[in-house]
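We recall that each integer encodes one residue's backbone shape. We quote one record:
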Amino acid sequence: MTSAIEVADLVVHRGARPVLHGLSCTIPEGSVTGLLGPSGSGKTTLMRAIVGVQVVRSGTVTVLGRPAGDAKLRSQIGYLTQAPSVYADLTVRENARYFAALYGLGQSEADAAVRDVGLEQAGSQLVGNLSGGQRSRASLACAIVSKPKVLVLDEPTVGQDPVLRDELWAQFRGLAENGSTLVVSSHVMDEANRCDRLLLIREGSLIADDTPAAVKASAGTDDLDQAFLTLIRRQGVPAPRAAGETSEVPS
């Protein structure tokens, strides 16, 4: 299978503190790869490196055959950050149409993106008047409007109700089936089963890189929370507290 993203021996420091420790992985083209791990594990840092906005100490990140951050990749990568990245003084539809115009696209593509994230009824509302979950969806509409070849989503379903989360994941799967490569971070394990592959990160190191079924089989359990803990213990990393009390990856 052709790879869309290749990360080799990636080392990133924030000040004097190491965040990623020689991390390597390959993300197949047309797949949905889940990036799982507790807060502070290095998920967002890895995503920033893939997008090309993270200063790295050593190692390489290659996206669609080019170094991450290459100017020719700008029109081919969509990036959704945890913080909404849209204009509060524009409506949802105006934001989508603005970002569509940046890619030389028209109103029909923008309106389709708004509809795909479930905001068609709120299209005429100012983003500044929306709820937090709605603002996140407005940002997602702008990220997917160009149908990018690589889509990097940092916790896109936080604050969304279960029905909408299911609809968004169906949208992610549709994008992958049409050839896009998605990297989706989450700290909620029940979303991991929706992915083709999982990258499990703990304290800046990769502790698993496989399909959800293979990760569970390797750990000898059908529960991904427990699989995560088992893999941590095998590597001699202190296990998190209160495991199993929630559906989130423990931190």
